[in-house]
Amino acid sequence: MLIGDIACIKSGTVITRKKAMNKNEVKAIYNMFTLKNVDSINEPFEQFQSNDVISPQHFTEEGDILFRLNHPYSATYIDASKKQLLIPSTFAVIKVQVDFFLPEYVAWYLNTAFAKKELEKGQSGTKIPSTNKATLNAIPIEQIDIEKQRNIVQLYKLHLQEKQLLTRLIEEKEKLFQAQITKVLQEIQ
After folding, report:
1. pLDDT tens for each residue of 73-118
2. Is 122 helix (H, G, I), strand (E, B) or coil?
3. Could you give the angle at the alpha carbon of 15 between the alpha carbons of 10 and 20, nearest 5°?
4. What pLDDT does 164 receive?
5. Per-residue DSSP letters for 21-87?
6. What angle do helix axes 146-188 and 103-110 make, rounded to 10 degrees?
7. Helix, strand, coil percentages for the chain (3-state, nearest 5)
8. Which residues of 48-69 are buried (b: 16+ CB within 10 A; e: fewer)?
9. What pTM was computed for the model?
10. Exposure string (b/e) for 10-36, b if CB count within 10 Å is 16 or more?
Protein backbone atom coordinates (compact mmCIF):
# COMPACT_ATOMS: atom_id res chain seq x y z
CA MET A 1 0.00 0.00 0.00
CA LEU A 2 1.18 3.54 -0.73
CA ILE A 3 0.55 6.84 1.07
CA GLY A 4 -1.33 7.96 -2.04
CA ASP A 5 -3.73 5.02 -1.58
CA ILE A 6 -4.80 6.16 1.89
CA ALA A 7 -4.49 9.94 1.74
CA CYS A 8 -5.13 13.03 -0.35
CA ILE A 9 -2.09 15.28 -0.71
CA LYS A 10 -2.18 18.92 -1.78
CA SER A 11 0.30 21.77 -1.75
CA GLY A 12 0.23 24.78 0.52
CA THR A 13 -0.51 28.31 -0.70
CA VAL A 14 1.98 30.44 -2.62
CA ILE A 15 1.85 33.30 -0.13
CA THR A 16 3.94 35.76 -2.12
CA ARG A 17 0.89 36.37 -4.32
CA LYS A 18 -1.24 37.23 -1.29
CA LYS A 19 1.23 39.28 0.72
CA ALA A 20 0.25 42.91 1.35
CA MET A 21 3.08 45.23 0.28
CA ASN A 22 1.98 48.12 2.50
CA LYS A 23 -0.48 48.80 5.33
CA ASN A 24 -3.12 50.16 2.94
CA GLU A 25 -3.34 46.82 1.11
CA VAL A 26 -3.99 44.71 4.25
CA LYS A 27 -7.42 43.10 4.05
CA ALA A 28 -6.82 40.32 6.58
CA ILE A 29 -4.21 39.11 9.06
CA TYR A 30 -3.73 35.37 9.57
CA ASN A 31 -1.63 33.17 11.81
CA MET A 32 0.68 31.13 9.60
CA PHE A 33 2.44 27.81 10.16
CA THR A 34 6.17 28.19 9.47
CA LEU A 35 9.29 26.06 9.62
CA LYS A 36 10.02 27.19 13.18
CA ASN A 37 6.67 25.70 14.29
CA VAL A 38 7.54 22.19 13.09
CA ASP A 39 9.37 20.98 16.20
CA SER A 40 8.40 23.61 18.74
CA ILE A 41 5.24 23.67 20.79
CA ASN A 42 5.87 27.09 22.34
CA GLU A 43 7.00 29.03 19.27
CA PRO A 44 4.44 31.74 18.39
CA PHE A 45 2.88 31.63 14.96
CA GLU A 46 3.95 34.22 12.41
CA GLN A 47 1.42 36.88 11.44
CA PHE A 48 0.73 37.09 7.71
CA GLN A 49 -0.74 40.30 6.32
CA SER A 50 -2.81 39.46 3.26
CA ASN A 51 -3.97 41.67 0.42
CA ASP A 52 -7.02 39.41 0.03
CA VAL A 53 -9.38 37.23 2.04
CA ILE A 54 -8.02 33.70 1.73
CA SER A 55 -10.30 30.70 1.25
CA PRO A 56 -10.68 28.32 4.25
CA GLN A 57 -9.25 25.43 2.20
CA HIS A 58 -5.78 26.99 2.62
CA PHE A 59 -5.81 26.60 6.42
CA THR A 60 -5.00 23.70 8.72
CA GLU A 61 -7.73 21.48 10.10
CA GLU A 62 -7.49 19.15 13.06
CA GLY A 63 -6.34 15.76 11.78
CA ASP A 64 -4.22 17.16 8.94
CA ILE A 65 -0.57 16.29 8.54
CA LEU A 66 1.75 19.04 7.34
CA PHE A 67 4.84 17.77 5.58
CA ARG A 68 7.89 19.95 5.07
CA LEU A 69 8.86 19.66 1.40
CA ASN A 70 12.47 20.81 1.86
CA HIS A 71 15.25 18.97 3.61
CA PRO A 72 15.21 18.11 6.49
CA TYR A 73 11.85 16.54 5.77
CA SER A 74 9.42 16.29 8.66
CA ALA A 75 5.76 15.65 9.28
CA THR A 76 3.64 17.41 11.89
CA TYR A 77 0.25 16.21 13.06
CA ILE A 78 -2.23 19.10 13.40
CA ASP A 79 -4.09 18.93 16.69
CA ALA A 80 -6.65 21.40 18.07
CA SER A 81 -3.90 23.86 19.09
CA LYS A 82 -2.63 24.18 15.50
CA LYS A 83 -5.85 24.44 13.51
CA GLN A 84 -6.87 27.46 11.38
CA LEU A 85 -3.28 28.31 10.39
CA LEU A 86 -2.37 29.46 6.90
CA ILE A 87 -0.30 26.81 5.09
CA PRO A 88 2.56 28.16 2.94
CA SER A 89 3.83 26.33 -0.14
CA THR A 90 6.86 25.00 1.76
CA PHE A 91 4.46 22.36 3.12
CA ALA A 92 2.21 19.70 1.69
CA VAL A 93 -1.08 18.92 3.43
CA ILE A 94 -1.83 15.23 3.87
CA LYS A 95 -5.40 14.25 4.71
CA VAL A 96 -5.82 10.60 5.62
CA GLN A 97 -8.97 9.34 3.83
CA VAL A 98 -9.38 5.90 5.42
CA ASP A 99 -10.38 4.82 8.90
CA PHE A 100 -7.83 2.01 9.24
CA PHE A 101 -4.89 4.44 9.50
CA LEU A 102 -4.58 7.03 12.27
CA PRO A 103 -3.31 10.40 10.99
CA GLU A 104 -0.98 10.62 14.03
CA TYR A 105 0.51 7.25 13.06
CA VAL A 106 1.00 8.33 9.44
CA ALA A 107 2.75 11.51 10.67
CA TRP A 108 5.03 9.41 12.88
CA TYR A 109 5.69 7.01 10.02
CA LEU A 110 6.69 9.85 7.68
CA ASN A 111 9.30 10.89 10.25
CA THR A 112 10.95 7.45 10.33
CA ALA A 113 14.31 6.71 8.75
CA PHE A 114 12.65 4.31 6.29
CA ALA A 115 10.23 6.96 4.96
CA LYS A 116 13.01 9.55 4.72
CA LYS A 117 15.13 7.09 2.74
CA GLU A 118 12.20 6.64 0.33
CA LEU A 119 11.97 10.42 -0.01
CA GLU A 120 15.64 10.65 -0.95
CA LYS A 121 14.94 8.50 -4.02
CA GLY A 122 12.67 11.17 -5.50
CA GLN A 123 14.29 14.34 -4.21
CA SER A 124 15.41 17.15 -6.45
CA GLY A 125 17.75 20.07 -5.96
CA THR A 126 21.39 20.02 -5.02
CA LYS A 127 21.91 22.74 -2.41
CA ILE A 128 18.57 22.36 -0.65
CA PRO A 129 17.04 18.99 -1.51
CA SER A 130 13.26 19.02 -1.90
CA THR A 131 10.49 16.59 -2.67
CA ASN A 132 7.01 16.76 -4.19
CA LYS A 133 3.49 15.32 -4.00
CA ALA A 134 4.24 12.50 -6.45
CA THR A 135 7.12 11.26 -4.29
CA LEU A 136 4.98 11.47 -1.14
CA ASN A 137 2.19 9.54 -2.87
CA ALA A 138 4.64 6.75 -3.74
CA ILE A 139 5.95 6.08 -0.21
CA PRO A 140 5.00 2.55 0.84
CA ILE A 141 3.23 2.09 4.19
CA GLU A 142 2.24 -1.21 5.77
CA GLN A 143 -1.17 -1.53 7.34
CA ILE A 144 -0.92 -2.61 10.95
CA ASP A 145 -3.56 -3.17 13.60
CA ILE A 146 -5.19 0.09 14.74
CA GLU A 147 -4.41 -0.71 18.38
CA LYS A 148 -0.71 -1.07 17.54
CA GLN A 149 -0.92 2.28 15.76
CA ARG A 150 -2.39 3.84 18.92
CA ASN A 151 0.41 2.32 21.01
CA ILE A 152 3.08 3.68 18.67
CA VAL A 153 1.46 7.13 18.72
CA GLN A 154 1.32 7.10 22.53
CA LEU A 155 4.95 6.02 22.78
CA TYR A 156 5.93 8.72 20.30
CA LYS A 157 4.09 11.39 22.30
CA LEU A 158 5.96 10.30 25.44
CA HIS A 159 9.22 10.46 23.49
CA LEU A 160 8.46 14.03 22.35
CA GLN A 161 7.57 15.07 25.91
CA GLU A 162 10.84 13.65 27.16
CA LYS A 163 12.79 15.53 24.47
CA GLN A 164 11.04 18.78 25.45
CA LEU A 165 11.83 18.20 29.12
CA LEU A 166 15.47 17.49 28.31
CA THR A 167 15.67 20.66 26.21
CA ARG A 168 14.23 22.70 29.08
CA LEU A 169 16.65 21.03 31.52
CA ILE A 170 19.60 21.97 29.29
CA GLU A 171 18.35 25.57 29.10
CA GLU A 172 17.98 25.76 32.90
CA LYS A 173 21.43 24.21 33.43
CA GLU A 174 22.89 26.82 31.08
CA LYS A 175 21.25 29.62 33.07
CA LEU A 176 22.56 28.13 36.33
CA PHE A 177 26.07 27.86 34.87
CA GLN A 178 26.00 31.47 33.63
CA ALA A 179 24.78 32.70 37.04
CA GLN A 180 27.58 30.81 38.82
CA ILE A 181 30.23 32.15 36.42
CA THR A 182 28.91 35.69 36.88
CA LYS A 183 29.08 35.27 40.68
CA VAL A 184 32.64 33.95 40.53
CA LEU A 185 33.74 36.80 38.26
CA GLN A 186 32.13 39.38 40.57
CA GLU A 187 33.99 37.92 43.57
CA ILE A 188 37.30 38.17 41.71
CA GLN A 189 36.84 41.87 40.90
Report:
1. 899 999 988 889 999 999 999 999 999 999 999 999 999 999 988 8
2. coil
3. 155
4. 86
5. SSGGG--EEEEE--GGGSS-SSPPPEEEEESSPPPGGGB--TT-EEEE-BSSP-EEE--GGG-S-B-
6. 60
7. 45, 20, 35
8. bbbbeebeeebbbeeebbbbbb
9. 0.83
10. eebbebeebebeeeeeeeeebbbbbee
> Which residue type is seen at 16?
T
Q: What pLDDT sits at residue 100?
A: 95
pLDDT at 22: 86
Longest CA pairwise span in the chain (Å)? 69
DSSP bridge pairs for 28: 50
Ranges under pLDDT 70 in the chain = 39-42, 122-127
